[in-house]
Amino acid sequence: MRAMIPFLIANLLLVSGSLAAAPRACAEDAPDDASAAGKSYRDGWWAETGGGNLNQAIDLYEKAAVADGPASVKARALYRKAVVLQRIGKTEDAIRALERLAKDHPLEAALQTDARTRLAEWTAVDLKTSFAEWYRRYQYSPEFQAKIVDLVLKLGATDASVGLAASSEILTIGTPAIPALRQHVESSNAQLRERVVSALLLLGEIPSLEALRRTSGWRSDYRCWMTLRLATAEVRARLSADAKADQPWDQGLVAALDGPLALLTWANDAAPKDMIHPFLSQTVIWDRKGPEPVELRAPLLTIAENKALDYSTREIATYGLLTIHGVDVAL
After folding, report:
1. Average per-residue pLDDT in the chain?
2. How many CA atoms lie within 13 A of 325 on its CB side?
3. What is d(CA 328, CA 242) in angstroms, rounded to the nearest whole number?
4. Over pLDDT 90: what percentage of the chain?
């Protein structure tokens, strides 16, 4: 939403400049109007200034803003709603109310001028003490987001050096690049899709299971698996709900998210033999916060002794046994 602030300020400047000659009406006055909007406005005005009930005033001003009545009254209701919202500390909501004012009532020159003044006060940043806040807002500005869009599109370049350079810059920018990346998760450009999903995971964002299933570049990056391991309960539930029963890879991913014991059980009971290695090689099955080593020993031993599996898969299981001290004298 903050990304709209530069546009909003420009819009307010344009409107107030073009209508400077319009008669000025004080935004603090309660309108003498018999319409439904006028009545709700006066009730809100009394709740704010007479009764001191600011939450009720906000509701009444919103009621006035959508009721039948003159545009001037409805515009003033939005303005007062923004002022009261800011008074109770809801500055973000207050700015959204001013956005509605600019969009819905561009001809209310006096209110646009007052709104511009308020907006400047609410968004002012002292660069000496609040550079981080200013920079955060700048990263979500239309100009900076346009730069990010260009970088995201370069991820689809056939020249690997161009794509890797763009990926590096996107990761340097960080979370402000996530909105633009999300727009290309389902791109028809396979290279772009691959790099977008990897970038999202590296930035801590977990896309849909469909996106994870359709791409493979991220699967060889341990950092992407770490993002999956740190997924919230809500994200885990989303991925589990989208997993298809007839898709072994889906079931493997769900098992990996459920923890070491679930993953090893899946590997022994249900997984295609050629699919075990990628999961075991990239997921941390020796999780200190997970099951006790004694619970992991049996499934690890089964994998290590399964001669139908390739050597590297058995080697990973053997290393796991050593890591959890699951190798005794008899073994």
Report:
1. 83
2. 3
3. 41
4. 39
Smallest CA-to-CA distance from 259 within 297, 289, 237 is with 289
- Using 50, 70 and 90 to split pLDDT, how confident is the model at 126? low
Distance between CA 64 and CA 43 in Å, rounded?
9
**What was the pLDDT predicted at 8?**
47
Tell the residue number behind the tokens 């999961």, with chain if given. 279
- The 8 Å CB, 24+ separation contacts for 270-279 are 272/248, 273/308, 273/309, 273/310, 274/310, 275/248, 275/249, 276/303, 276/309, 276/313, 277/310, 277/312, 277/313, 277/316, 278/219, 279/252, 279/253, 279/255
Task: Find how far residue 306's CA is from the centre of its chain.
Answer: 44
Mean pLDDT of 55-81: 92
102: pLDDT confidence band, cut at 50, 70 and 90?
Answer: confident
Q: Does the pLDDT at position 320 exceed 80?
A: yes
Say how many C-beta atoms besides its own lie within 10 A of residue 272's C-beta. 9
Is residue 28 scored above 90 in pLDDT?
no
Compute the distance between CA of residue 183 and CA of residue 190 in angstroms, rounded to an integer: 14
Confidence of residue 30 (pLDDT cuts 50, 70, 90): low
